[in-house]
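Sorry, can you check?
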Amino acid sequence: MKLLRELRSRLMRGSGRRAYAWVLRDWKRLRDLDGAARLLETMRFNRPLAPQVLDGPIGKRLLVIAPHPDDEVIGPGGTLIRAARRGAAVRILYLTSGAESERALREAEARNVCATLGFEAAFGGLAVRDIGLDLAASRIADEIARFRPEQIFVPFLLDDNDDHRRASQALIAAARRPGTGAGIELWAYQVYTPLPGNIAVDITAEATDKAAAIRLYVSQFRNRDWAHFALGLNAFNCRLVRGDPSPRYIESFFVVPLSEYCRLGDIYFAPGTAYYEPAYCGNSDHG
């Protein structure tokens, strides 16, 4: 508190103009900062390292873990559209379907998106903002056993949403089960948060179709234009790729073997580090 009082004092000094106000919505300590720092230290990302530009995954069976309906298109939508058009089987596991009051609507929207894009849809039936770790891990392990994916897509484990981080934690728990996860390549995607990507996919040719797919989630456009949001992030990502000054849209991924992602997750998801919202604290099923 002494530090905060000093910061406020400094902000209030000086010019006669009205001082800027800072608002901290959660006065609790952000418990995951130390774990996140330790994780990022292991990656050794710096300016000399540039992401590799690929056309997308080479596998023919892609499993996408979407914490909520629309994450699969807001995040890796352009890459998945391209993969499906090239003959890959793309299966989306929606861990939740939104709040109970909107579940039927959001599942209908998700089925429509998948039918439009040529994806398969599966629903985990878990509670939004309260994803039980054991149940989620079981759902994911079942999908891996049934679908036998070559690549798995999941939101990056530092993405700025508790459900998104939970998806990574559940995948890691599933991969620890005997006979699950061997030989699978992990593609961590971004939804809210830029990530230290090592793979960039130029989706300029798919950008219009990605935006159209996002707009099929009509119920989610009450508060934000998610197509605008997603393509804005993809436009920002063009800073990662040099050599072409024309406007482009880039999806960024952190790609490693699933076994290596599990080792990184062990750093971040150490007990007591990953979550600070009440639903993910103090419950043995939540880790």
In short: The domain at 52-280 is CATH 3.40.50.10320 (Rossmann fold).
